[in-house]
Amino acid sequence: MTAPPISRDPAAGRIVVEGLTKQFRSVRAVDQLSFTVEPGSVTGFLGPNGAGKTTTLRMVLGLVSPSAGSATIGGQPYRQLAAPSHAVGAALEASSFHPARSARNHLRVLCIAAGLPVGRADELLGLVGLTDAARRKVRGYSLGMRQRLGLAQALLGDPAVLILDEPANGLDPEGIRWLRGLLRHLADEGRTVLVSSHQLNEVQEIADRVVILSRGRLVRQGTIAELTAGTDRVVVRSPDPARLHEAVARAGGDVTPLDATGMQVRGLDAAQIGHVAFTEGIELHELSARRTDLEDLFFELTAGGPR
Ligand SMILES: Nc1ncnc2c1ncn2[C@@H]1O[C@H](COP(=O)(O)OP(=O)(O)OP(=O)(O)O)[C@@H](O)[C@H]1O
C-alpha cells in the first residue's frame, strides 16, 4: 500500500464524542456518552448486544442524527468534512454488496465513482487477502470473506480514520491474527482505528485501548493494562477454610469465599498468603494467582448484560 498522507497533527484524526445521546421513541440507545479516540492506536469499542455501539458509530459517521451532544472527527462533524472518503473509511455491515458482482468489480466501480485509479481495487484485494477470490461473485462469499471485502472498501480512499463495526465476526483464528496485524500496521502509520465488538477475547488481541459501553453509557475507557491494574487475585484452598479465612483476613487480605474449601483473596499476593498459612500451620490444597483479563472485567463492569 502506498504511504498515506496522514497529517502529523494528532488532533486531525482524533474522534471526540461529547454528551452524545440518541433516543429512539421509548429506547435511549445512547445516553450522555463521552469518549475520545486517538490516532496511532487501535481502540476497541466494547459492549454487550444492544449496548448502543452501532448507533454511536452511525452518529459519528453522520448516518443518524443525535438527540443531543456531538461527535467530531478532527474537530468537525462528519457531514462537514471537506473530503470525507479520504478522511474516514468505515465498514458497518458485511452484507451490503451486490451479490451478482465480483469483489473486483465491486471495488472497481467504487474506484471510478471516487475518481481513483481502478488499479487500487487489485491493490486492496491483495491487502485483504482476497486476490484468489477476486473474480468470484460476492453471493458465494463466506461471512469472513465479506468482512475482508468490507475492509477493502473502507480503505479505498486511504483514510486517516478507520471505523469498523464487528470486523472480526466470521473470521477464523487465523483471520483474526491477520486482522490484528493489519490494524496494528494501519495504526502504526498514524491512523485512528476504532473497532467495535462484543467478543472480548478478540478485542483483547486486537486493541491497545478500549472504550466500554453498557446500556448506552460509558463504563470505562483506557488501556487494557490500566483497566485491569490492581484487580489481580489469588485463589486458595484448604481443608480448614475457616482458619485460613481468618488468618488471611488478619494479614490484610480481602477474602471472598468461593465454595466449601476455596476462597478468593485480593490485597495479598500468593507468596504472602503462603507465608501466612505456613506460620499458622494451615494445610493448603491450592494457591494460584489469577490475572484478571478483559473478559472478567467486562462482565464485572457490564453486569446485567443486554437490555
Ligand atoms: N432505528 C432504531 N429504532 C429503534 N430502536 C433502535 C434503532 N436502532 C437501534 N435501536 C435500539 O437501540 C439499542 C442499541 O442498539 P445498537 O444496535 O446500537 O447496539 P449494539 O451495541 O450495536 O448491539 P449489537 O452488539 O447487538 O450490534 C437497542 O435496544 C436497539 O434495539
From TrEMBL:
PROSITE patterns on file: ABC_TRANSPORTER_1, ABC_TRANSPORTER_2
Taxonomically, which superkingdom? Bacteria
InterPro entries xref list = AAA+_ATPase, ABC_transporter-like_ATP-bd, ABC_transporter-like_CS, P-loop_NTPase
Assigned keywords, A-Z: ATP-binding, Nucleotide-binding, Transport
Residues of the ABC transporter domain:
15-240
Q: Please name the GO terms that the record assigns under molecular function.
A: ATP binding; ATP hydrolysis activity
Family the entry assigns: Belongs to the ABC transporter superfamily.
The name this protein carries in UniProt is ABC-2 type transport system ATP-binding protein
Q: Which organism is it from?
A: Jatrophihabitans endophyticus
Q: What is the lineage of its organism?
A: Bacteria, Bacillati, Actinomycetota, Actinomycetes, Jatrophihabitantales
